[in-house]
Amino acid sequence: xxxxxAPAPSRPVPARDGRDARVVxxxxxxxxxxxxxxxxxxxxxxxxxxxxxxRFQWDVVGDYLFAQPILQGVAxxxxxxxxxxxxxxxxxxxxxxLRLSPNPILSSAAxxxxxxxxxxxxLVQLLFWYFLAALYPTIGVGGVxxxxxxxxxxxxxxxxxxxLNEAAYMSEIVRSGILSVxxxxxxxxxxxxxxxxxxxxxxxxxxxMRVIIPPTGNETIGMLKHTALVLVIGYTELMTTxxxxxxxxxxxxxxxxxxxxxxxxxxxxxxxxxxxxxRHFGRGFSNHRVSRKGSRVRKGEAVA
Length: 304
Known about the structure:
mainly alpha; two-stranded antiparallel sheet; two-stranded antiparallel ribbon; flat; disordered C terminus
């Protein structure tokens, strides 16, 4: 064939039964489209009912959505969520490491902590810390004592209740992440002279983050909603602020909608942040696929 000669036209490849095999028709799924139409009609009807119902008082919702007391409550909710999660994550890592300790006393103490705080309701724990003065009127350390009523404020009780409870759940999450790392990694690090603490900090935990991050993101969103429980001890976060307003104005439904909209908005932002953090720690794991022969192949590469 010369350079100026045109390529021969492609011919249809006959199938085994002699028919043309070039055209592949997609499978039709009428039931799926019918179900999709039904779902769209239900969603449209629900939205119409919610927007068109004057009893929701959307004008009142708009008046209070960015009101100063509500914004202050949102700020306190965010602060409480961040502080409680910091306590929970930090203490949870320590408890998880103790659970895996070869020392039976340390592992038993860590297990008991996790069992106790996961086995009792969070509301009970919040009330217990708030009324701690009924058991210990004064709290002392090293010869110095303070009045429990002055020391255990609503904010302190909220941080203790939420943080210590979260630490029990985070310890299980961290422990599962540590156990997901192959034991050979720790053995290799120990073989080069690393201490147990160095192995955990430099080798195991960085690899376990890929497993730890997704449930930790869920726990953070859960903590955001759990902060509403501090209503019972009088800390003025978002839900307490909304309840104080509707107890005065009797506009209960609009204020509950305001609180719900803020919780939904913050949860959406946290979900986006969780996505990017998961993608960061998932680098090196998600950009590979396994071929049928068992070898790792990068995306876009052909499998021989």
